[in-house]
Amino acid sequence: MRKIMILLCLALVSWGANAQHDHAKMDHTKGGQSMMQSKMTGKMALSPAIKVEHSQSATAIINNYLALKDALVEDNSKKAAGAGKMLFEALSKFDLSAQSKSQQKELKDIIDDAKENTEHIVENSGKIDHQREHFEILGTDIKDLIVITGSDRNLYQLYCPMYNNHEGGKWLSASNKVKNPFLGRKMLNCGNVKQEITLK
To answer: Domain 50-199 is of which CATH architecture?
Structure first.
């Protein structure tokens, strides 16, 4: 029994020495980026830019989506609900007949999904976490719509790795400067540009 205890003590001492040795190898200098800093900047490989047609057909949708994004950046749930209402109206007024027959069905599905997510944002004033969940899904809908219909301006898709328990989330912006709509003032600059959407 005494032999076993001695062996256990030796194993623990040896493990402790190794752990200290490994810890000493870690870069703690100011220039070395910690794992937390790396996660916050979310250095994700930049996807190739998407080139879209120059078009004004989705201008009202883009304007209201960006207003909704700004309201969430400000942590303003009531303002987000108001911008969501305007976005819902813009989506409802979108002229599908101006698009080719082959694109109309796909666009209808995208718009229906976007309207459903926007409704959740409108109906949940005061519940900003719930609004942000639907805003994250909405970003994909709006991006898909823009890829088909075109845009009147260059846009950026940004990515925050910290959102939703480190699962991450994406949103669209007219600027490549990070202003995070998922975390607001808590972590305003968390994220980076993932993809550019540019006019042809």
So the answer is: Up-down Bundle (1.20)
